[in-house]
């Protein structure tokens, strides 16, 4: 099984918020942002696995502040943990001003599952941990994974 580095699959997208992206309060519609986040998580997972992937779950979708018409939204995704057939993707969202200052809007953790040619879960490449930050991310991801498994066992 191949191994890949975190930087091999990191993905960044930028969106300009247009009037069609706004909710009735004049802020970025949460559903639009969720779609963008899922797309970035999927791209990261595809780049890591070189396979088709599906979203299994989303954790910690917390909105820290709003984004408005003509704001630039930057979304950055990276692999933080891999299991046998699944991986955790951390997706951070920022509102970027004209000077390039980024302010956090959202952080979410996606569990993505790799699929074989028959749409069945299949093994994913191992993740090469290169930095202390990546090691800390891995350890935090293991804790989140255990919490997800506990919630699943308890029916949440």
Automatic annotation (TrEMBL):
GO biological process assignments: acyl-CoA metabolic process
Segments crossing the lipid bilayer: none
SUPFAM superfamilies attached to this UniProt entry: Thioesterase/thiol ester dehydrase-isomerase (SSF54637)
GO MF annotation, one: long-chain fatty acyl-CoA hydrolase activity
Domain HotDog ACOT-type: 7-118
UniProt keyword terms in alphabetical order: Hydrolase
Cellular component aspect of the GO annotation: cytoplasm
Domain of life from the UniProt record: Bacteria
Iron-sulfur recorded as keyword: no
Pfam families assigned to the protein according to its UniProt record, in alphabetical order: 4HBT
InterPro entries the UniProt entry points to: Cytosol_ACT, HOTDOG_ACOT, HotDog_dom_sf, Thioestr_dom
Family the entry assigns: Belongs to the acyl coenzyme A hydrolase family.
UniProt-listed PANTHER family: ACYL COENZYME A THIOESTER HYDROLASE (PTHR11049)
Protein name as it appears in the record: Acyl-CoA hydrolase
Native species: Hespellia stercorisuis DSM 15480
Taxonomic lineage: Bacteria, Bacillati, Bacillota, Clostridia, Lachnospirales
